[in-house]
Amino acid sequence: MVKAKIILASGSPRRRQLLSELGISFQVVTADVSELDATTSPHLTPAELARENARLKAVAVMKLKPGSWVLGADTVVVLDGRLFGKPASQEEAREFLQALSGCTHEVITSCALIAPNGEEEVFHETSKVTFRDLSDEIIERYLTEVSVLDKAGAYALQERGEWIIAQVEGSRTNVIGLPTECLGKVLKKRGLL
Questions:
Q1: Is the whole-model pTM more than 0.90?
Q2: Which of 32, 74, 80, 133 is the catalytic position?
């Protein structure tokens, strides 16, 4: 039996790599979606925000590719109730890393899987990440070596993460952008893996 193909509603190279590692065939289709944030949706918890953004992306692509399995995803970084999205500039990235320095924060990645019949399954995973105490020198070196403007929280576990991260509790792939352990179970349950 040929397994159904999934459409990944994300341009993230990290999500593409993680989905490939699961061994599922997929294609990438992105849609221009205005993502919600703490300013536009202050009534949503960080997990609800990630879930709704993942769903918005999947629904937008479903409209472009009706009758397909579509997977949307969204990642947020949270410290003491403050959301850290993708930094708008190197200066904001620097400020994010300074704020996260020496602290333990949460990384929440939500997935929205939409079936060809429109049925939705939305779930999320939470991991805890503890940063080392970062000197200004380490922050500058990190910002020079790693392209951070497309990364929630202005960092990537898989790119020089050892410089800034002391510990990860929970799913490491979740921190990278796709909770593959949880996603794999959902895909198997649906007969896609």
A1: yes
A2: 74
